[in-house]
Specification:
Layout: H1 3-30, H2 35-58, H3 67-81, H4 86-98, H5 108-111, H6 119-126, H7 128-135, H8 145-151, H9 172-187, H10 198-207, H11 215-227, H12 229-239
Helix pairs in contact: 1-2, 3-4, 3-9, 3-11, 4-8, 4-9, 7-8, 8-9, 9-10
Length: 249
């Protein structure tokens, strides 16, 4: 696959969606469409665009299939536990699905590389947040998804990227995505390692609470896990088949 061509294709699709959304908005404002009909068609257009983008991400790396649905689901549940309003939950859902969109601009060989990445390769991988934020023009969506995509690798103690933001400088929704993404990533098999156990993953999150992760978010997320133990394990069995090694428990 040609990363440059894939980025160009996504930008063209985004521009097409912009025009479609604007046409629907103008039609509703002019009275050519009933408000409820216009809103329903907008929702369909947004959903179709999001699912198309998710397929583009997952096609780059087979190990990510199903991952973004889980991150999105857990992020929304955690956000609800923290009392976020419906609009922010919608933004979280979209952000969870699209957070790694920029990986369409990264060479496949790097995404599935088994050997340790070089410092230069790590910087290339990190650039996916810039690429994704640029592709996701916030004008297209009713929520600012691009900022979530840009910030989801920032960390509570300032050790993340791309800007080294810390604490409240990071959007709460991005802090939620950081925790949920880390959980799903550790619980899933990758090209270079097997999946970690649930207990190991939870201990890791708790150990990094107040450092890498917002302690309030970790507490809410762990609460979600404790209240839905069986459902969470079923999620992974269905969406992310994994193999565990004794050594990673």
């Amino acid at each position: 696959m040609n990363p440059d061509k894939e980025i160009t294709d996504l930008r063209v699709e985004n521009e097409r969606l912009k025009l479609e959304v604007e046409k629907l908005r103008l039609g509703t404002a002019a009275g050519d469409l009933k408000v409820e009909d216009g809103e329903a068609r907008l929702k369909i257009a947004y959903e179709a665009a999001i699912q198309s983008l998710v397929r583009a991400i997952e096609s780059k790396d087979p190990y990510t299939a199903g991952r973004y649905e889980l991150v999105s689901k857990y992020a929304v549940t955690t956000g609800r536990a923290l009392g976020l309003p419906a609009e922010d939950l919608d933004r979280l859902r979209a952000g969870g699905l699209l957070m790694d969109l920029g990986k369409v601009g990264i060479d496949n060989n790097l995404l599935v590389k088994v050997e340790r990445l070089t410092p230069a390769e790590e910087e290339i991988i990190k650039s996916h947040v810039d690429i994704g934020a640029e592709i996701l023009d916030p004008i297209v969506y009713p929520w600012d998804v691009s900022t979530l995509v840009y910030q989801h690798h920032e960390r509570y103690d300032g050790s993340g990227y791309p800007e080294g933001l810390a604490g409240e400088e990071i959007l709460l929704e991005a802090r939620i995505l950081g925790v949920c993404d880390s959980f799903v990533a550790m619980m899933a098999s990758r090209a270079y390692r097997d999946a970690y156990s649930r207990d190991f993953t939870v201990r890791t999150l708790m150990g990094e609470s107040g450092k890498l992760y917002d302690p309030r978010v970790v507490e809410a997320f762990i609460g979600v896990l404790e209240n839905n133990k069986e459902a969470v394990m079923e999620d992974f069995e269905k969406s992310l088949p994994k193999r565990e090694k004794d050594g990673v428990n």
